[in-house]
Amino acid sequence: MRSEKLDLIAVGGGIAGLTAANRAAQLGLKAVVLEKGAAEKYLCNTRYTGGTLHVCMGDIMAGEQALLNAIERLCAGIARPDLARAVARNAERAVRWLQGEGLKFLRASGSPHHRWVLAPPGRTRPGLDWKGRAGDVLLRRLGDNLAERGGRLIRDARVRHPLMEGERCIGVTADIVGAPTEYHARSVVLADGGFQSALDLVREYISPHPEKLHQRNAGSGTGDGLRLAQEAGAAILGMDRFYGHLLSIDAPTNERLWPYPYLDSIATAGIIIGRDGKRFTDEGLGGVYAANSVASLADPLSATIVFDQAIWEGAGRNGLIPANPHLPRESGTMHEAPSLAALAELIGAPAAALEATVAAYNAAVDAGTIGSLTPPRRTYKGAPVAIRTPPFYATPVCAGITYTMGGIAIDGHARVLRPDDTAIDGLYAAGATTGGLEGGAAVGYVGGLAKSVVTGLCAAEHAAGWRQPSAGHS
After folding, report:
1. Which of 22, 140, 188, 283 makes the best surface tag, with the fewest CB within 10 Å?
2. Is the pTM for the entire model greater than 0.70?
3. Treating both helix axes as pointing N-terminal to C-terminal, what angle do 448-463 and 81-100 enclose, rounded to 10 degrees?
4. Residues 214, 216, 222, 227: is their CA dihedral positive or negative?
C-alpha cells in the first residue's frame, strides 16, 4: 500500500473542502484535496449551486449580532452557541475571503438575501444551468489557486477509513483510481457533503420511502465522511432534517423541472393537502419545512398544493424563476377547474373534504385566526391568501432533497466532537456533512454556502494554529 505524509487532507472537492485546503496553504501547510469524482468537472452540489451567499435568508453583511439573532431565532434548540457565533462572526469575512480568491459577486434582486450572489449567476432558467456559472467558476478558481499554492486536488479518490493513533486521527485510507493508499496528515477535514444520496441513511433518519424523494442535487453526497467520522468515535446529531424544496411531481422524469422552478411560494400562500383532501402541515413555515413534511409522509408522493387564480397571479410569480409561468410552460402537471368539487374529482380527493378544508381555511384567513387551524398555520414565510377566485388549481408535488442538515458534531473551530463533547484530535469537518447548526422543529435554514465557507476557514485556521485578530480581516 502506498503512503504519503501531509499537513492537511480535505476530503471532498466542493466549496468547503477547497476553502479549507486553500486557507491551509495560505497559512503555510502542505494541503491535498481527495475528491471521489473522476471527471475534470466532477459533479458535486457546489457545481450546481445558484451561488447565493446569505445567512437565514437575510443579508450576509448584516453584522454579527443581527446574524446571530437570526440563527438563534430560526434554529432554536438545534444550533450550538459556539457554532452559531462562529458563522455570525465570520460571515462577512467569508465573502471577503472569496473576493480575495478572485470570485466576483452581483446583486441578483432587491431581496436582502440576493445582495451577494456569485457571478455569473447560476439561476437563469428552469432546469440545470451550471456550466460556466456560479459554482462551476468557483470550483475552477479555487482549484487553480490551490495548485498555485503548491497544493493538489486528487480525483477518483474514494476515502474509506480513518487512520488512528490512539484517540488521534492521523490520516485516512483511500482508493486512488482503485489503488489502496494511506495518507498521513496532522489534520483531516471531512467536507464531502451530506448523506442525501445514501438511501439507507435517508430511510433510517428522514423518510420511509427515500426512493420517492427527488434528488435535487448532484448525487455525490453518499455519507462517506459521516461514516468515517463515526468510525473514529464522532457524535452525530440532527439527522432528521434536510434543505430542499417542493417540486412538481414530474421533476424525476422531466429535467426542466428541477432544481428550478420550485413551488414553495404558491404552497406558502395556499394550502397543501393529502389524498384525504385535508391539510397536514404548517404551510406558513415555508417550502423547506413543507418539503420535510412531505418526505415524512407514509407516501411522499401523495401531496398536492391547492390554490386559486389570485395566488397564481400573485405568489405564483415570486422568485427569479417562478412557478408562473414556468411550471405549465415546462409541462409540469397542473390541474384547473371552475369549482373545488370539480378540482377534487380531477385529483382524486373527496370533494366534501376538500370543500370543508378550504372553507375552514378561508374563514380563518378572514378572521385572522389561522393559528387555530388544525394543523396550525403561521406567517413566518408569507401571508396566507384566501382560496376563492376561480379557476382553482392543484399541482401534485414531491420533496426535492438538496442536502441533509444534520451530521457530524463539530464545535466553533470545526473540530469533530465525541458524544461527551470532547474534540477528536486531528479531525475536523466542514460544510453539509456537519450537524449542530440547521434543522430542528422549524427546520431552520442558515445557508449551505455560508456554512461551508465559514467552517472550512475555521477548520484550516485551527489546524494551522492561526488565531483571528480581534478586528480586521486576514
Report:
1. 140
2. yes
3. 90
4. negative
Beta carbons of 53 and 60 less than 8 angstroms apart: yes
pLDDT tens for the chain, 474 residues long, are 566 789 999 999 999 999 999 999 999 999 999 999 999 999 999 999 999 999 999 999 999 999 999 999 999 999 999 999 999 999 999 999 999 999 999 998 989 999 999 999 888 899 999 999 999 999 999 999 999 999 999 999 999 999 999 999 999 999 999 899 999 999 999 999 999 999 999 999 999 999 999 999 999 999 999 999 999 999 999 999 999 999 999 999 999 999 999 999 999 999 999 999 999 999 999 999 999 999 999 999 999 999 999 999 999 999 999 999 999 999 999 999 999 999 999 999 999 999 999 999 999 999 999 999 999 999 988 899 999 999 999 999 999 999 999 999 999 999 999 999 999 999 999 999 999 999 999 999 999 999 999 999 999 999 999 887 764 444
Q: Are the beta carbons of 209 and 30 closer than 8 angstroms?
A: no
Domain 244-401 CATH class label: alpha beta
Give dist(CA 246, CA 268) in Å, integer: 11
Nearest CA-CA partner of 326 in 248, 402, 396: 248
Cell digits for 463?
489546524
Q: How far apart are CA 258 and CA 247, in angstroms?
A: 7
Cβ–Cβ < 8 Å for 152, 33? yes
- Indicate left, alpha or beta for 265 from its phi (over 0: left) and psi (-120 to 50: alpha): alpha
Query: 61: which residues sit within 8 A by CB, 6+ positions away?
Result: 91, 92, 95, 115, 116
Distance (Å, rounded) from C-alpha 462 to C-alpha 428? 9
**Nine-digit cell at 197?**
444520496
Residue spans of the domains in the chain: they are: 2-240+405-463, 244-401
Residues 6+ apart with CB under 8 A from 438: 75, 78, 79, 238, 241, 243, 405, 406, 444, 445, 446, 451
Q: How far apart are alpha carbons 425 and 167 in whole angstroms?
A: 7
User: In the CATH hierarchy, which fold is given to the domain comprising 2-240+405-463?
Assistant: FAD/NAD(P)-binding domain (3.50.50)
Of residues 302, 258, 191, 280, the one with CA closest to residue 401: 258
Selection from 94, 16, 103 nearest residue 468 by Cα: 94
| Residue 395 to residue 397: CA distance in whole angstroms | 6
Q: Which of 116, 91, 59 is nearest to 437 (CA)?
A: 91
